[in-house]
Amino acid sequence: MLEALRQSGHYLRMAQLIDPFGRHVSYLRVSVTDRCDFRCVYCMAENMNFLPKADLLTLEELDRLCSAFIAQGVKKLRLTGGEPLVRKGIMTLVESLSRHLKTGALEELTLTTNGSQLVKYAKDLARHGVKRINVSIDTLDADKFKAITRWGELAKVLDGVKAAQDAGLAIKINAVALKGVNEFEIPAMLTWAHGQKMDLTLIETMPMGDIDGDRTDQYLPLSQLRAQLAEQFTLQDIPYKTGGPASYVRVAETGGRLGFITPLTHNFCESCNRVRITCTGTLYMCLGQNDAADLRAPLRASESDGLVTQAIMEAIGRKPKGHDFIIDRDHNRPAVARHMSVTGG
Ligand code: SAM
Ligand code: SF4
User: Fold this and answer.
1) Residue 40 CA to ligand 2 centre (angstroms)
2) Alpha carbons 110 and 144: distance in angstroms, whole number
3) Distance between CA atoms of 24 and 316, rounded to whole angstroms?
């Protein structure tokens, strides 16, 4: 089909969102709710003030907004949160967005989840064209899991992983590297994930939002962790890309892929192709900056998409070069006040 479009010349005229640095914005992450059934220590404080439900975009509005981005050339869409699978009626949104997969306008519809609801939803996700998902698991020790997530239950999440595998979904496990918490467990997690044909990606903690603890106590540079892993495993750099910011190695001993997301030790902004919208329709052009554009007002102001498309294009025209994350004793406060759960990981 692409070839036919190319030959007709139409392909070249398709809309694209290009930022001031020439980067093509083709990836939209959508936080469908800021709420969550866990309270991970690096992500949230135990007592959180969530957005009033009345401020949220409806599922129909979220669909319209995503569709406006797809019409502007977004090819990959990731639902996230908060916990996307706790948003009431979420499968209605997944189902309606899947029409863009059928037309080929959208190449991939995926989500990032804590896995707690996967037993319930894995089959439906697969049925609606979701092919792969990210599941966040920081440890395989049930007590540690409880300590990290405060409210989570490892067994339930592992049942969810099994259900997703049975439904035919490819899974990538995301683990935030936490100093002195899961630091020495990564080899075991790697062996477990690769043994089940799942990729594993490690993430550095980012200074977003006030949490109850001190981030300098949690922060583990992945350069250090990689060096530790290299003593035990043979890590071969590979050019594999999923559209996200991770860089990958192949682990010779397991044959599996290991990804590193290193916003602190190695800034990856030069190739950033992503923007994010919150569940209230605020567009953040960068995860680590405060500039944002309200898309809810133009969305609601007109039944046609002209106004909102114009607002999207103007905002992309201000996409900043990159973030300025730093974590050390001198910079022990969030780079941005909002929590990760607002803009989504
Ligand atoms: N609730 C879902 C989950 O946990 O997968 C989706 C949203 S969560 C905000 C997305 C990802 O962001 C998770 O992998 C989580 O571990 C990660 N995350 C949350 N807060 C973070 C922080 N301050 N620094 C780095 N990663 C963070
Ligand atoms: Fe919830 Fe995900 Fe944040 Fe954990 S990381 S509190 S599961 S949104």
Assistant:
1) 5
2) 28
3) 10
126 Cα–ligand 1 center, Å: 23
Write the single-letter amino acid at 11: Y
Cβ of residue 70 lying under 6 Å from some atom of ligand 1: no
How far, in Å, CA of 55 to CA of 117, rounded? 24
Read off the pLDDT of residues 68-103 as tens digits, 9 standing for 90 and up: 999 999 999 999 999 999 999 999 999 999 999 999
CA-proximal residue: ligand 2, atom 8 (nearest):
82
* pLDDT value for 214: 74
Using DSSP bridges, classify how beta strands 282-284 and 108-113 pair: parallel, antiparallel or unpaired. unpaired
Q: Which atom of ligand 2 is least distant from the CA of 44?
A: 6
- Contact between 139 and 181 under an 8 Å Cβ cutoff? The reply is yes
Listing from the earlier edge strand, what are the strands of the sheet with 247-251? 235-238, 247-251, 257-261, 199-203, 170-176, 132-136, 108-113, 76-80, 27-31, 274-277, 282-284, 292-294
Give the pLDDT band (50/70/90) at residue 224: very high
Domains observed in the chain = 20-343 (3.20.20.70)
- Residue 270 carries which DSSP code? G
- Confidence at residue 333, expressed as pLDDT on a 0 to 100 scale: 64
* C-alpha 43 to ligand 1 mean position (Å): 6
pTM exceeding 0.85? yes
208 Cβ closer than 6 Å to some ligand 1 atom: yes
Locus of tokens 């070069």? 321
> Atom 3, ligand 2: which residue's CA is nearest?
43
> How far is the centre of ligand 2, averaged over its atoms, from the C-alpha of 2 (Å)?
38
User: 306: number of CA atoms within 13 Å, CB side?
Assistant: 3
Question: Number of C-alpha atoms within 13 angstroms, CB side, residue 99?
Answer: 9
The verdict on the CB of residue 83 being under 6 Å from ligand 2 is yes
Which tokens sit at 178?
């936490």
Measured in Å, residue 309 CA sits from the centre of ligand 2 at: 31
7 has pLDDT over 50: no
